């Protein structure tokens, strides 16, 4: 399976005149190598991108000729130092931007409570009672956190009814699902795609946490466990 190339790759990471000339197989390989952050063998790259080893060698030779990668021992490839530094600079900038968002807001921008309740299937009179709750208006992640928690369970036959009871009692959702609901609107589209690809490659919640802990402080290993559970039960709830 070929990996889609995020739009950011064509922007600040490297000169547009270089990336604009890359065919899709080479651009895919460059993106995979960037994600891995370490040397990868020709065989590994072929497996991850569903290309033949011959095609991988040809594409990597082209990238090496443009000084984006270089070949190491044992038929492996790694990002060139200059390109790797450009990637690191963009990552540092992204980390700072995310930290600035957290510093300026008590909670992430969330969809309107009314749209969320309607999507869940809650109608009057419960809808009207919940819409009058200032705590839910200020923090819709409480609602979303409960909803996502119940989507991961097989036994509820009336999830909306259970959610209404929890909310009217003033109960908070499980912490991992609440933090996931708060953080998810801040996760970029490119990072969401990358997380999904990591799941396809068998990454554990701990590995996901190590990859994204700086960018998204709310996404701890426990929260990523909730993310994986929800993705397996109802990926559409996360926008997949």
What's the short story on this structure?
The chain has 240 residues and is mainly α. The protein contains 14 helices and three strands. The chain is 60% helix and 4% strand.
Indicate the topology.
Elements: H1 16-19, H2 24-36, E1 40-41, H3 42-49, H4 53-65, E2 69-72, E3 76-79, H5 81-104, H6 113-120, H7 126-131, H8 134-138, H9 141-151, H10 159-168, H11 175-183, H12 189-200, H13 205-212, H14 221-233
Helix pairs in contact: 2-4, 3-4, 9-10, 9-11, 11-14, 13-14
What brief labels describe this structure?
240 residues; mainly alpha; 3-stranded antiparallel β-sheet; 14 helices; 60% helix
Share in helix: 55-70%
Instruction: Give Rg in angstroms.
Output: 22 Å
Structural class by helix and strand composition: mainly alpha
Low-confidence stretches: 1-18, 101-111
Q: So how many helices?
A: 14
Mean pLDDT: 80
How widely separated are the two ends? 17 Å
> Quick one: overall form?
elongated
Strand content: under 5%
What is the number of beta strands?
A: 3
Provide the succession of SSEs.
HHEHHEEHHHHHHHHHH
Order of strands in the sheet with most strands: 1-3-2
In this structure, how is the largest beta sheet organized? 3 strands, antiparallel
């Amino acid at each position: 399976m070929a990996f889609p190339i995020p739009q950011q790759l064509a922007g600040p990471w490297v000169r547009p005149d270089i990336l604009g000339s890359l065919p899709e197989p080479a651009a895919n390989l460059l993106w995979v190598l960037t994600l891995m952050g370490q040397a990868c063998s020709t065989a590994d790259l072929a497996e991850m991108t569903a290309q033949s080893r011959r095609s991988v060698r040809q594409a990597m030779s082209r990238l090496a000729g443009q000084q984006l990668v270089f070949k190491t021992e044992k038929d492996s490839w790694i990002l060139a130092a200059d390109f790797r530094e450009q990637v690191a600079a963009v990552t540092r900038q992204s980390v700072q931007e995310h930290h600035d968002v957290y510093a300026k807001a008590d909670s992430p921008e969330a969809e309107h409570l009314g749209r969320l309740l309607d999507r869940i299937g809650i109608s009057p009179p419960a809808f009207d009672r919940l819409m009058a709750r200032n705590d839910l208006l200020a923090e819709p992640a409480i609602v979303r956190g409960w909803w996502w928690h119940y989507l991961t369970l097989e036994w509820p036959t009336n999830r909306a009814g259970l959610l209404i009871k929890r909310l009217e009692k003033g109960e908070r959702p499980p912490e991992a699902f609440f933090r996931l609901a708060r953080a998810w609107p801040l996760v970029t589209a490119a990072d969401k795609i990358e997380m999904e690809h990591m799941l396809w490659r068998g990454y554990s919640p701990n590995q996901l946490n190590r990859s994204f802990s700086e960018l998204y402080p709310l996404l701890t290993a426990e929260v990523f466990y909730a993310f994986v559970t929800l993705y397996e039960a109802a990926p559409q709830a996360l926008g997949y």
